[in-house]
Amino acid sequence: MKHSSSFQQGIFYAFAAYFMWGILPLYWALITEINATEILMFRIILSLIFMIILIPITKQWNQLKGDIQQLIQTPKKLIIIVIAGYVVTLNWGIFIYAINENYVLQTSLGYYINPLVSIMLAMIFFKERFTRLEWCAIGLATIGVIYMTIKVGEFPFISLFLAFTFGIYGLLKKLVPLSAISSITIETFATTPMALLYLIFINHSHGLSIGMNSSTFWLIFSGIVTAVPLLSFSAAANRIPLSLIGFIQYVGPTLIFLNGIFVFKEAFNLDQFITFCFIWSGILIYVLSQVVKIRRKPNPLT
After folding, report:
1. Cell membrane as a keyword (predicted)?
2. Which of 23, 128, 187, 301 could form a disulfide bond with 122, CB atoms 3.0-4.6 angstroms apart?
């Protein structure tokens, strides 16, 4: 019964994480009066502040100290985590920019493509072998990108940037596994000096765009908005197989896609629909390949 309860909790946390990520464009759309780069820098600093408050509440000081000691003893791992912090910062930045510039559908496309990019990176860096179905999935996604470039006349830079930065971030995190709280804290601690220097420079050169307005009010919550989905995802990963999380992850880009059409009213013509059909077909085949893998496992719930 205890295993069943933990499994159900894991599914709940996974859905909660991807639901929060899926509606994130609605949050960033509230912050229209502040420069996108400033938003990113404040997001980093406020995320660190939130984690510093959260750590004693969750009694994770010992875990954090142990993880920091491990990284100090292995400088290579420390460098990897610092790089990971800056890679995910690039991902956050382009996501905020895309929402502010009304490229919501491209962000959706990026996170649909992301799992396929991840398996491609695994092939390159971990020499993993892929099935014909996985190759077919990657091929269809590639055709979708090429079709969009030729027919829509728009190379999906934002989509691919989001997919590859998040894929590389996942790759780096696989090399140095840490708890979610330690990971977010260390990564934001590493990137906060850069954020502070940027804000000081901007303030001295022409002034910050924050002020007594609604955008600044909503920006205050960016640390919470950043950390909570990541913590929820970590809680899910500790309770259910990553293969199951792999299926649930499509909740996020699907919600972003629906937001793009129905909330942000982005144009969605036939050529864009065809592009997404290629991507969705690739995802369907990818999901099918994962089902086949799970069925071949002796114990599919491990």
Report:
1. yes
2. 128
What is the spatial distance between Cα 2 and Cα 242, in angstroms, rounded to a whole number?
A: 20
CA atoms of 43 and 99, how far apart (whole Å): 15
Residues 271, 148 contacting (CB under 8 angstroms) = yes
DSSP 128: -
Residue 210 CA to residue 33 CA, distance in Å, equals: 8
Tell me the C-alpha distance between 220 and 224, whole Å: 9
Rounded to whole angstroms, the Cα distance separating 85 from 190 reads 7
Q: What's residue 243's pLDDT?
A: 63
The count of other CB atoms within 10 Å of the CB of residue 258 is: 14
| Rounded-to-integer distance, Cα 127 and Cα 116, Å | 15
Measured at the CA of 21, the angle between CA 163 and CA 152, to 5 degrees, comes to 45
- Flag whether the pTM goes above 0.90: no
C-alpha 200/C-alpha 219 separation (Å) is 18
Long-range contacts: 126-129, Cβ < 8 Å, 24+? Answer: none
Residue 103 CB partners (closer than 8 Å, separation 6+): 97, 158
CA distance 36 to 96: 6
